[in-house]
Amino acid sequence: MIPALLTALLFAASAVCGHRTARQIGGVEANFWRITLATFFLAVWANTCGTGMAGAPGWFMLSGLFGIGLGDSAYFQALPRLGSRRTVLLCQCFTAPFAALIEWVWLGNKLNLPEILCIGIILIGVAIALAPDDHLPIAKRDWKIGIVATLFAALGGAFGAVIIRKGYAALTLAGVHPDAGTTGYQRMFGGILAPAIILLAVKWRSAHAQGPLLERQTLQITREKWGRIWPWVLANALAGQTLGVTCMQWALASTNAAVVSAVIAMTPLILLPVTRIVDGEKIGLRALVGALTAVGGVIGLTLSR
Predict the structure, then answer these.
(1) How far apart are alpha carbons 277 and 49 in whole angstroms?
(2) CB crowding 97-117: b at 16 or more within 10 Å, else e
(3) Using CA atoms, how far apart are residues 98 and 196, in angstroms rounded to an integer?
(4) pLDDT along the chain (305 residues), means of 10
(5) What's the confidence (pLDDT) of residue 290?
(6) Does 42 reside within a domain?
(7) How many whole angstroms separate alpha carbon 304 and alpha carbon 269?
(8) Residue 290, in any domain of the structure
(9) What pLDDT shows up at residue 158?
(10) Is residue 276 part of a domain?
(11) What angle do helix axes 140-174 and 257-264 make, rounded to 10 degrees?
(12) How many CA atoms are closer than 13 Å to the CA of 277, on its beta-carbon side?
């Protein structure tokens, strides 16, 4: 449970940084650079202190394709439209039941009744805390695109988490036990291709839609933005896809994907005081009640295990 809670904390920090970068340079480019930097950081670890591509890299790379390559690409389309709190709320609350269903159908791992009840309490608490009536207004079109994007992100994240469980099962059978940073590197390596292709497609389309003058002006504006936001990009990569992914790999090595996903769903509650300072969003009585409810669910889930 401790690795899952650490993941939630790190993902909360990443969500704030990701929201800033996505609004400045777009979700596609922000996602690509955080994954690229995190892959570099984890590659350094895995190839110096870890075991590189040893073990069962195929499963972890496949997990990266679904969870990072496809899921996170959709996640970064929702961030600038729905904001960090809503995006994290919807993604995490959809991911937990999707992961439970997929792991049950594919791997045959079932949750017991206390676990199901506690997961339900966590998700209810999160939903109560982040109900949208006191949040920033969102255009109808952004709502539709954001909801669809969060559904894709949740499905990708759920498949990715369950595939990690499959990968660890393969490692157990092989008698190999690489560290979480190494398996995290293998996962990031599999996740970097899809964001790279998407970014190239977006850049190619943009270059053909603009004339040479507009293209030079856009490049100048982009350089100025990068001068302001590169610390946010670096922090996003370190918090989310480097340390956060490592902690999630650590958690999934011994815990069901649905349980880990439910604990990580605490991420938006950790965001409450941060978004109050950064975005000026209100924190009302309902948010506090929801937060306490979700924390109670986590305590119950810990005791039930």
Answers:
(1) 38
(2) bbbbebbeeeeebebeeebbe
(3) 27
(4) 86 81 78 89 92 88 91 82 77 86 90 89 84 66 89 93 93 88 92 84 68 53 69 89 91 89 83 70 76 85 77
(5) 84
(6) yes
(7) 22
(8) no
(9) 93
(10) no
(11) 140
(12) 5
| The pLDDT value given to residue 218 | 54
Task: Specify the pLDDT at position 128.
Answer: 83
3-class DSSP string for the chain: CHHHHHHHHHHHHHHHHHHHHHHHHCHHHHHHHHHHHHHHHHHHHHHHCCCCCCCCHHHHHHHHHHHHHHHHHHHHHHHHHHCHHHHHHHHHHHHHHHHHHHHHHHHCCCCCHHHHHHHHHHHHHHHHHCCHHHCCCCCHHHHHHHHHHHHHHHHHHHHHHHHHHHHHHHHHHHCCCCCHHHHHHHHHHHHCHHHHHHHHHHHHHHHHHCCHHHHHHHHHHHHHHHHHHHHHHHHHHHHHHHHHHHHHHHHHCCCCHHHHHHHHCCHHHHHHHHHHHHCCCCCCHHHHHHHHHHHHHHHHHHHHC
- The amino acid sitting at 293 is T
Contact in structure between 103 and 258 (CB atoms under 8 Å): yes
- Number of structural domains (the chain) is 1
Q: Residue 172 is part of which domain span?
A: 2-119+136-260
What is the predicted pLDDT for the residue at 216?
55
Nearest by Cα to 125 from 259, 297, 279: 297
273 token code pair: 């005081």
Identify whether 83 is part of a domain: yes
